[in-house]
What we know:
Site (Important for enzyme activity): 1613
Shape: elongated
EC number: 2.5.1.26
Helix content: 40-55%
Oligomer: single chain
Transmembrane segments: 23-44, 281-300, 306-328, 366-387
Protein name: alkylglycerone-phosphate synthase
Cofactor: FAD
Low-confidence stretches: 1-11, 215-227, 268-277, 1235-1256
Bound molecules: flavin-adenine dinucleotide
Structural class: alpha/beta
Mean pLDDT: 82
Number of strands: 47
Amino acid sequence: MEPSRRSLAAPWPMGFRGHGADVSLFSFGYIKTLSALGGGVAWVQNASLRQRMQQLQQGWPVRSRAQRLWTVLRAFVFKAFLTPCLYGFLESLVTTLGFDFDRVIVAWTRGFTKLEYIRQRPSVPLLETLLWRLQSQHKAAFEDSSLQSSVARRRGLAKQMLAAGLGAEVVSLGDGANSWWLLPILCDNPRQVAQELLMRGFDATSTSTQLQRVQSLASSATRSAALRASDGEDFMNRVVYLPLDPDLAPSAARQLAEAVKDALQSSDAPARGRPASGRRVLVTLLGGALVAWPSLISWLPSLWLIWSLLLLALLLLFLAAKVAQCLAGDPDLRMDPKLLQAMSALPKVEGVAFCRERPLKLRLEGAVLLTGATGFVGGGILFNLLARAEELGITRLVLLVRQRRGQTLEDRIRQLRDGEMFRELRETFDKVVVGLEGDVSLRNFGWTEDKTWPQKEPLTAVLHCAGDVRFQQPMQKAAVSLISATLQMQQLASKWKAKRFLFVSTAFVHAQPSSEALEEKLVELRDFDPMELYRDAMSHGSWAKTAMHELGFPNTYTFAKAIAEHLVIRACDAEALDVKIVRPSIVGPAWAFPYTGWAGEKPSTIVGAGALLARRGVRVFRDGFDHPCPVVPVDLVAELAVKGLAGGGDSRILHACLDAADADKMPSFRFFTKRFYQLLAIKGFMSLPELGFNMKLLRWCCESATVFYHVHALLNVLPMQILDFVRIFLEKALAIFGQSLSRRFSSTVRILASCSTLPMQYHPFSSPSTCWRFRSSLRLPEGWGLYEYLFICCTAGYAFAENPLKGPGRHQAKRFTEIRVFSHESALSDAFSAFVHPQVSLFYAFAAFVVRLALGWQRLTVSVQGASLAVLTDLEAPLVLCPQHRSILDFVLIGLVCFQFQPLLPIQLPQVAADAEFSNLPLLGWALGGLGAFFVRRGGGAVQPDPALRAKVGRFLQSGRPLEVFLEGLRSRGRRQLRLRTGLLKALRDISQRTVQLVPLALSYELLPEDESLYKEMCGQPRDPLSTLGLLWWVLRGLRGELPALGEAHLSFGSAQKLEASSDLDTLVSEVQRQLVDLTSVTTLHCQALAETLELPLPKVLEAMEASQLPVRPSRLAVPPSPLPEAARWALALQAATLPPLRRRLPRAWGRWLVEGLSEEEPGGAPPASLAELCGAFCAQLQTAEAAARLCSEALRRSGVQEVTEEHLLQELLSQDTAVPPPLARGAACVVAAKGFGAFGGVAKGKPRQPSAVTLLWPAQEAELKDEECLDRWGFKDTKFVAQYVDGRPAAQITSQRYKALGRQPLFQLWELFQRQLCVPLNVRDVLPERPLFELPQVPTALREALEAALPAERLRLDSFARIRAGAGHGLADVWRLRSREPGRFFDAVVRPESEAEVEALLQAAARGDGFGVIPVGGRTNVTSATKCPPFEVDPRPMVALDMRGLSRVLWVNAEDGVAMIEAGITGVELKKALELFSVTMGMEPDSMELSTLGGWIATRASGMKRARYGNIEDMVLEVRLATPGGTIWQRHGDPAQAETSIGRASTNLALPGLVLGSEGCLGVVTAAVVRVRPLPQVVEYQSVLFPDWDRGATWMREVARLPACLRPASCRLMDQNQLQLAQALKQGSAQNSALANFRASLRDAFLSWKGVSLSEAAAVTLVFEGSRPEVKLQKQEVARLVSNFGGLWGGSASGAAGYALTFAIAYLRDFGLDFRILSESLETMVPWSRISEVWPAVQAAVRERHKELRLPGKPFMSCRMTQLYDEGTWPSVPWASSQSSRSRPLRIWSTPPDVRC
Ligand SMILES: Cc1cc2nc3c(=O)[nH]c(=O)nc-3n(C[C@H](O)[C@H](O)[C@H](O)COP(=O)(O)OP(=O)(O)OC[C@H]3O[C@@H](n4cnc5c(N)ncnc54)[C@H](O)[C@@H]3O)c2cc1C
């Protein structure tokens, strides 16, 4: 030590003395982390302070060399783990083991758990190191350039971090100058932030300080603000240290800064889960492999060894699993149904109320002195005395209490008073109770002087209850604590003039049971004098011991009590003191007071045995006989004691045990053990194999005493002794992870070791060979039940097993009735629970494992109301579970519950009637099917009786498995209770022929995985469809630990309802529903949601709930989000509002909305005061919503809506700025519309069904296709879309096979798409009726004659159909007019000439005399009402339609020159076919080509789909022949004799085609035209391309437009996302709708999302390549180049063809929409490329605005298609559809186009 001291006194080499502080501390090396490895120096300015410090240090011991060595070793290990790889491995390992890594590191690296560890002088080696460092290293170190650069680097990094703006308070100088190793920041949630950073790979910590707040010694007056201890505390509570390693790359520092920002944001959100256990295990394994790689390498050559070991391990695993399964299947584990039933029959009245219900009718008057009040029986007596204080006239209650474990008298009394048991009696306690310090087992109570009675009131009675209840005490100790203490108390009672002395003894003073009931009198000690025995016991005790055995006493406790009884009675008699002795037998937990199940603070008797069994402290008791166990509830003992104290009872000795007559009302110990095991099994507190093993032990040990002794020695005693032996070593090992862990471990082991012999000690009482029978005046309370009390004992036992230091709390028994089915622990335990399950196949076990894993990711706890399970034990009739439908998790949870309880209850896995939507989901659908689900179409049965369903139901009835049916049908979006449906029950009733039991099953969730999406639906957004991809994505998130915690799901079964052939289904479902509502429960999270919604404080809400006797369970969320997200908040609040106490006080209409279809009469009434505020606040919100709904309803009516539907009203409420929350808007819409109560989510609700018109139908595929045109819809009569139920599910279907690409399958998706996009409910049956055609007025005779004179009669058509059809185009206005049979002006006649001469004749006739008007018509496909007759006011002449379709011949074709002459009336399709005969094509293919004509194209300047290759009509027409009243105009070039070749360009004259094109028939009638034709293409190839979004698609189109014409595809159309969906929905018809197809679709989706394309945003291009092979090849090459440049993905030719076919389908779809009052029209215009990005958004905005302005229901459906590419721009076409139902003037919306601004 000397040289060190000298050197340390030497001046500092650097001369640095700190910053001038009073005391500066310098540390070296790991001083902070590893207990002074490098040492430290304190520089103290003040000499006297320095001296005092030195003096203090001198008094401390010197740290030993061994300790130093230990420190160095730890430092080395620690250093080794500092490499990132090993550190990561350590983190993973520690976290996998379930420890908090941060805490473990702190515990490991710091040893300052006791001050003694640092109150040591440094060891000599440390001082030597320090000296060496100061002398040689220090200077060099400061000059060391690497250190300098390291410091500079750290500072640089710190600066960089600070510059990044961390968003947190930084504890650093602005330049980061004082940031060396760490950068401290302050935030509100440091642990969470640190955890978040740790998860992102940054070693941040929030616990690296052990500094603690020290109260300032300075007086408050001198305390400066800067030195406030609270500031330091605040700092320590908020600090997070960010790692600033000099090796950190700048990019990593940036990432760290980003991570900090994110972590700070996410620290507001609920804590993210720990990294997925799977990943951790992987990391751990990899880490392990890394550490052990040398040994692994040495193994490599012997691979066969690895294989054989692996096989051996597998074999062992298999065998172990089989043994475990066998044990788990022990038949005795099957639950006793009565025990389950007992759970719900626990005492209803408890506590003070129970005492008051049983008055004693006795008086004590005065003060009472009580001993043992802090014990179990004494506590019960104290409670009873206080509860009856008034009744008995007790004015003072003096408790004689000893000091214990440093606690003063006051502490102990306060502790007693504050205990849960006296909650009801605190006031009386404060008024009556006083403490008196004294220890009955000490001479003169430990008092130094003689005490007088310290109270004013006279002492009336003394109750001595204190006593040491240890059976195996040495004789003397037992004599002191039980005899001396009692006699001393009796003497005190005499001295203080008490009138009565009551002594609590034991019923087992009767040494042995007898066949006769034991009497309430002193036990016979034969010739032994009690006083002599006492005297001997107090000396050496050997004679007393002999006497004890001789008299048959099993232990010193009962023996000493027996002696005490004799002596006390003798002494009291001598002093004329009234004496009573109360003899309880085994005192069990309370029946009713202080509260049910109360069992004191320490486990004792039967409760203790239960605790030991549950904690494996003891494996087996000997339960040889089935005699009732002589247990008595503590409260009944207390009541008898108080009664005795007050003078009640006939004799001086009172047996506080069950009378012989009632003995059978107590279970035997074996009975208790067996049921206890069953309870443990059902509660999942012990694994089934272990319990099965215990059950077997129980049976073996019952059979034979020899077996018991051996098993007991082996299983109870030996392990405890071994454990006790190794305890010392394990304590040390555990100390590494923290002292508290080590302490807890050692105390537990000590207790268990001391208990290992209890099975032998208990045996005489618990399971005697002869039954204990007592004569007793104690009577059992009303409602007593063996099973109920058994249950109470079990719960109390388990409560102590859970926490041996704390007794069962209030409602413990009731809480115990709740069974935790699942709560995530580890993947290993999940695997264990699933795979060792008896009686199930591997598939089910695997499914259970997967389910458990998945629930674990969501940290969902699943619990069941235990008592409710009783219903499952009585399974005489087939069982149908009727759960609420809240989540996709429902059937998963129910399956899990049944799986888990399968060996314990006679229940099998249910067969689920699942929605057919699941059936087509790959993976999930298959898994469900494999697990026994069968698929039904919701609501289908109501429409079409489903024989398949009946067959499925029949199969279920035969299988014997329960059936699970979601009667609500649809998942409740807002956790309301939806109307129950009867379709499936009907099938069940009709087919079962026997009674079926319907069991309601309430599912109460906290949070749901779908909360967000359900809320979105409530807000009016479309429903997210189920998809396997979604499921896979969810799994991925689960594996990554990113799924949010869900809290708890609580299940409760209702009582069974019988479904018989004669049952009235409505009554039945109404009862089921009532139960479902009543069984729904809430947690504090629901209350929080209510509090936030109603802006009330949470305690107030909780209080209100309590006042309405609504049990509120604590939330299972570790950190409930606060405030709750909107989506979850409303769901939770509405769930709470459905509960009767609250719902009944809401306006009745709202109550009915919350619980649909509940027929019960709702009693309203004034709420209790505490509920009034809550109800008032709720009602206020409802009324506001209702008022807003009324306003909207009026506004709608004013705007022309005739019938305001609920959906329409809702939409208004949501779109208007009403500030009504969406869930309430739904309610308000329902209440105000008052038209039934539709479900959330826009599903069609049953409007009054109209009898459907009878239509003659033929099979679609068999019908012969006829080109007969429709009158009031697009296309041909045989082809249209219709809606119908297919297999009970609505679908759209096309009636013919005209368009192969559309297939023939029912288009379910199309029907859904309509509803989803338009957000209006559609009803298949609610179709616009077909009306009869109106008759037109007769044709004027003059006209008829004129026409007949001009043309042959057969050219004339005068029927209404022809006249109406000719006068209407295919624009929406025309078609709607026809559909609604709106009268108007139509043609007087239609003529169809077949030659140009006939046309000329007609025109001449028209010009004659008054004449008549002639309008040429072609295909009448115009969309501009171009063929509509002018009003009479404009042209009063008769009107004749000149139907040009009679002129439809190809006059000649000159393929060589590429020209042809064709008559104008030919339709596009005819023309195409005709030209094909000449191997040429015109290439003109407008979408309307099936009907439109060449003349029409010319007259309207039409454009075709293949414009890019062939051009528009103006590019094709070379010559026209124009018929006029004055003759035909024909502009010829060259020699008329060479008609076919005299075509060519002319430089002079106006070109006639130029005049006629677009003339709309005003200049004359085009009778024929010479057009360009081209050879038929060699190749026609369809293709499609997907682009991530519209914008990228549009840019790509622009690039294609820039290609030279020959390189462009013939057709190139871009469709937006909505149109793509439409195409997909149509394509569904051509594809097989099977699971395989869905699987393929899922794979495709997965591939697309991998490529960054989401189908919900993508845009698609359909392409048609046409031309010669080299041409097409070249085109494709160019296009492919552009596709890859713009991130497109090829979508295949099938999709291309489907997209092309959509062209033909669109018009049919428009008319299909009209059937359901959905009006649609296309907006088309030319847009220059420069404005293309603005137009589509602007159109959307304008359309939405218009829709809103007109208050139309639902949403407009819009899509955009870019159809043509021009050099200067493009031609977007925007189909727009809106529902017009219930509007008075539906066409108003189209009267003025929307005002598009861009
Ligand atoms: C579903 C659908 C798809 C369509 N797709 C396209 C498309 O892709 N490209 C496109 O450009 N248009 C399209 N249209 C619009 C329409 O098909 C065209 O305007 C077409 O050219 C009209 O031809 P039509 O034979 O049906 O003429 P009609 O509708 O009968 O008449 C249109 C006008 O031409 C006049 N007319 C007709 N024949 C003669 C004649 N021989 N001599 C003088 N005047 C005459 C009529 O008096 C009338 O004014 C479509 C329409 C619908 C309903």
